[in-house]
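Here is the promised in-class demo. Please do not try to memorize the tokens; focus on the logic of going from shape to residues.
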């Protein structure tokens, strides 16, 4: 008996990828064209022009110096004052020196509570002040 061998049909059909590639490229071009890119702004590094040469510079603003020493004693312009009355004394001194800067100098060994109290009392009265910490010597 002879065996019949059946040959399986050879599948020669290939899938044509050209239409799919066309669609992919069209979509890619569409997304590139319609994409919005963020416009990032850089830092302006242009320097301001130099100040004009002035023979008569403006006079420096006067300063009111509030000092708290290592023993937690307060003074305003070298006049000893109780720490809870410093803001009132500074307001009175501002009448004599209008537009003066307030400089709060505090010893490094002074209690931090005094610094916070004085700064808060100036802020409540609307007085701007600058703080300097004096190192212990």
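The designed amino acids, position by position:
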């Amino acid at each position: 008996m002879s065996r019949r061998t059946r040959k399986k049909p050879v599948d020669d059909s290939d899938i044509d990828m050209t239409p799919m590639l066309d669609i992919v490229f069209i979509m890619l071009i569409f997304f590139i064209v319609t994409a919005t890119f963020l416009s990032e702004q850089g830092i302006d590094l242009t320097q301001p022009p130099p100040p004009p040469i002035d023979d008569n510079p403006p006079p420096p603003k006067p300063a009111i110096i509030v000092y708290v020493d290592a023993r937690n004693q307060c003074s305003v312009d070298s006049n000893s004052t109780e720490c809870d009355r410093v803001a009132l004394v500074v307001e009175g001194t501002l009448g004599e020196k209008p537009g003066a800067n307030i400089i709060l100098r505090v010893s490094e060994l002074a209690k931090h509570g005094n610094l916070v109290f004085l700064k808060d009392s100036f802020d409540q009265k609307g007085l701007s002040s600058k703080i300097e910490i004096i190192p212990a010597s």
